[in-house]
Amino acid sequence: MRRTLFLLIVGLGGAAILIWLGVWQIQRLAWKEAIIADINTRIAAAPVDLPPTVNAEDDAYLPVAVTGSFDAGEVHVLVSQKDVGAGYRVIAPFALEDGRRIMVDRGFVLTTDKDAPRALGPATVTGNLQWPRETDSFTPEADLKGNIWFARDVPDMAQTLGTDPVLLVARSSTPQPAGISPLPVDTARIPNDHLQYAITWFSLAAIWLGMSLFFLRRRRAPKTES
Question: Which residues on neighbouring strands pair with residue 110, listed in sequence order?
């Protein structure tokens, strides 16, 4: 009897924990979808002038339009595009009319065009401010000699290019430089795997209950004499 009670407690308790984890992931899913919806609304809003003081928390994804001039110097960030292959994001310094210097993510170029000359000088750029978090403990150090970066690290890129730590990801540019395809901010890059996690926890709960029932039935089954 005690053995049966123990199996029952373990079976129901374990299933309850797994079901709770699944419900928690469903709640996280709703939270993440609300965040993504809010970001999408912010991205698609009408562009405004770059604020006099830019804050990474308050101004993330803010749509802005700036007029100024592209200066010499670039940072090349290694990326891969579906159906295209490997290439680089081109990050360039941009001098605003008020004297500030920011960075503009001009877009994607093929590996063969990494060091191709690109138009400098006056331009108007429309896009969204972003401070991407792409670095972690596994991210290789940038190859400064070869100008190959493996993630967009805003503070380090700004120090290298001599700009403010502000990155504008271009949606469009006038004039549009030849050979560069804009890579505008896209919330599809924001991970949202909570539904898969929830399905996993609920599946484990079902398996746990099934195994618990199996052991209980086996425990209660009459023993046959040999």
Answer: 87
